[in-house]
From TrEMBL:
Molecular function as annotated in GO: alpha-(1->3)-fucosyltransferase activity
Family: Belongs to the glycosyltransferase 10 family.
GO CC terms of this entry: Golgi cisterna membrane
Lineage: Eukaryota, Metazoa, Ecdysozoa, Nematoda, Chromadorea
Pathway assignment: Protein modification; protein glycosylation
Top-level taxon of the source organism: Eukaryota
Membrane topology per record: Single-pass type II membrane protein
Main location: Golgi
Identification of the protein by name: Fucosyltransferase
Coiled-coil region: none
Subcellular location: Golgi apparatus, Golgi stack membrane
InterPro entries per the UniProt record, alphabetical: Glyco_tran_10_C, Glyco_trans_10, GT10-like_C_sf
Keyword Ion transport: no
Catalytic activity, EC: 2.4.1.-
Amino acid sequence: MPLIAFWTTFPRKKTRCDEEITGLLPGAERCAYQCKLIDRQEEKLYTQSASAYLFHGSLFNHYDLPKPSSRYLNVLLLREAPIRVEMWWGGQIYKLFMALRKKTKGSLFFISNCRTPSRRERKIRELSKFTEITARGKCEKFFSINGSAESYNCKSDCTDDDLIATHRFYIAFENSNCDDYITEKFYSRISKLLVPVVSERRIYRGIPSYSFIAADDFSSLRDLGNYLNYLRRNDTAYLRLVLHVI
């Protein structure tokens, strides 16, 4: 029997699959195509996956969605006319602008592997001569050189979130340049409004080309550094790039 899971709760309901909610489908028991309504958390109790997820419109959260798949449908359900659903105009954009106002620094890089097959540390050290890079990790001393690199030895008063909130880019050079291998930092940093800077574009085939900056698009690391400096100074150009990324 197909499963239909309630992804969101409904207003003033204690559970997602409240009896009153299931009553929204009068005559369902007489339908030739029978299904079972379950709570989102109950899905793990079944060997099969849900065929559809139901979302209540007023509680819809685009940051909390199932992973895209052709194996199921996403269904938006409202008990009232859409005019009754309040949505503050510009609310999300306002939050975005407030977050971007804190981003006054250049590139961030967490480094724990000091000797990588791709020799990324050499490239990043060279890049740091042309643009600001903040390095953190057990190999941060590698960046204590003449140039614009800044090394942090953070303690309790300095967290990853503090650094992420103030930087515009994340250096996501892979430790090994292999086909179909993408560092997890590429995805984890995008969600933090950090534009990824990767080493080779070919490794990221299939990913929207405008969602990252590739070092090999530039004739030299100096040119890449100059472009990052331009985006750091030009809020309009940087915002245009960020809107593509998110």
